[in-house]
Design brief:
The chain contains 16 helices and 16 strands. Helix 9 crosses helix 12.
């Protein structure tokens, strides 16, 4: 039996352009949909597509526009990755930095050059770039003109973008992901896919139509990537986390299975190449009609993904019956509070074994390599008088999850490519728009209102993660308390 993780396992960290890059409207960049999502009381309504960003108060603060200014500090930040010993870095391109409106015939050379400089620097330092093509970033022009992914016109725009980056970075980028947390479209449609709703329309039908357009685009992008660079690997990516039933009441168990299917739907199509029977039956029951072209079925069937990437922060719990007294927060939607689990300061439940359970569920279902591309703890960090930041709670969270990850590989036989914890550096929280909800091994001096020097400072977890990578996780086996 294999012991531990395989040689060449890809340890690293993860970020997204709209949460760390900044550089709003610099270097020829056009505005993106995420640039229009405010911090504060209106954030959720805008993310859900129920409030028009054009109706926001004039004094609204948009955290994505500066974020942590990685646009100007990328070299310094990549040096920190290299110091930790990263084998890879998962990050995203801002679509509107390369195609400012999404409809240009030729890409913005300054935008391409920006990412080329980053990729070349990573490769120089032996860090494998892992690129998310669309991480909640849609050029605002495409939302205003076509309604974003509700229109099939987005497929051509997306493929033009894909061709430009696949050709430019052939031989430099091996791992691509078509859409970040593609299932987030069902929960936060404007953030996930630039979808806003008109009064009285069938929101579920709009979401499924947008989902279909994204799924066809993903399949065509997978085909294109393989044509341009047969060595490239293209993955899908979902926000994962097993749903536990509230009780052994069969109705609760059935409810949990249904909730899991809502998340699995996208990946079922991307990995298996067809709409699952349960989804077809649901659309039939809900009288949802999806506009499809005759060739779509063949496109989906013939262009499945090479690997399954996913985020995991916590498990969820569900009941067939209301239990408002025990509701708590989760990644984009509420869940029931599990009495067996502790929770973060934001109410997200901490379930390391849940990661192993989720890995096995995904691997059993798809039998394709997995890639954990987000996992982490959002917490308030305090700088001590001597300038240090002792984030032992983060070390404890990550240690416990990594141990379960290793068990899934070593004892269960799960094929795992790598592990890139979320927010290796502090960045803007996607769910709340806050900076005080910190995930990183590196502290960034900035507050929720945008004040701060943006100075980078290592936390205690920086040296800890450096050791984890250097030993390929073996230090966690030797010291059960690490």
């Amino acid at each position: 039996m294999m012991k531990g993780l395989p040689e060449g396992f890809l340890w690293g960290g993860a970020t997204a352009a709209n949460q760390c890059e900044g550089g709003y409207m610099e270097g020829g960049k056009g505005p993106g949909t995420v640039d229009m999502i405010p911090w504060g009381e209106n954030r959720l309504a805008v993310m859900q597509g129920h409030m028009d960003y054009r109706e926001l108060p004039e004094d609204s603060y948009f955290p994505a526009r500066e974020a942590i200014d990685m646009y100007h500090r990328w070299k310094e930040d990549i040096a920190l990755m290299a110091e930790m010993g990263f084998k890879c870095c998962r990050f995203s391109f801002a679509w509107s930095r390369i195609f400012p409106t999404g409809e240009e015939e030729a890409p913005n050379e300054e935008g391409l050059k920006f990412y080329e400089n980053i990729i070349d620097e990573m490769l120089r330092l032996h860090i494998e770039p892992v690129v998310t093509i669309c991480h909640f970033d849609v050029p605002l022009h495409l939302e205003q003109k076509y309604g974003s992914w509700r229109s099939r016109r987005l497929i051509d725009a997306y493929l033009r973008y894909c061709r430009a980056i696949f050709e430019r970075f052939k031989g430099k980028v091996r791992y691509w992901m078509t859409f970040n947390e593609i299932n987030m479209l069902m929960h936060l449609p404007f953030m996930g896919a630039g979808i806003s709703f008109k009064k009285g329309e069938n929101e579920l039908e709009v979401k499924y139509q947008a989902a279909h357009n994204e799924l066809v685009a993903s399949a065509l992008a997978t085909r294109l990537a393989h044509e341009i660079d047969p060595e490239s690997k293209v993955g899908c990516m979902l926000a994962a986390g097993q749903f536990y039933p509230y009780s052994c009441d069969p109705e609760d168990v059935w409810e949990a299975m249904k909730k899991d299917r809502v998340n699995y739907f996208f990946i079922d199509v991307q990995s298996k190449g067809e709409y699952p029977a349960y989804a077809k039956k649901q659309m039939e029951r809900e009288q949802i009609t999806i506009q499809m072209e005759p060739e779509d079925e063949a496109i989906l069937r013939e262009n499945t993904v090479d690997y399954i990437a996913f985020s995991y922060y916590s498990s969820r719990m569900i009941s067939a019956h209301p239990h408002p007294e025990i509701e708590t927060s989760g990644n984009a939607f509420k869940t029931l509070r599990n009495p067996w689990l502790k929770a973060s300061q934001w109410g997200w439940q901490i379930d390391p074994l849940g990661l192993r359970i989720t890995m096995n569920s995904l691997y059993d279902r798809y039998q394709k390599p997995l890639f954990i591309v987000e996992n982490g703890l959002g917490a308030v960090d305090t700088i001590q008088k001597d300038g240090t930041i002792s984030d032992d709670y983060r070390i404890e969270y990550l240690s416990a999850h990594i141990r379960e990850m290793i068990k899934a590989v070593e004892e269960d036989g799960v094929d795992l490519i790598g592990y890139t914890p979320w927010g290796w550096i502090d960045l803007v929280s996607a769910s709340t728009g806050e900076m005080k909800k910190r995930y990183g091994f590196v502290y960034v001096d900035k507050d929720n209102a945008g004040n701060g020097t943006l100075e980078r400072r290592k936390k205690k977890s920086f040296d800890w993660y450096q050791q984890v990578i250097a030993t390929n996780g073996e230090c966690l086996r030797q010291d059960g308390r690490s």
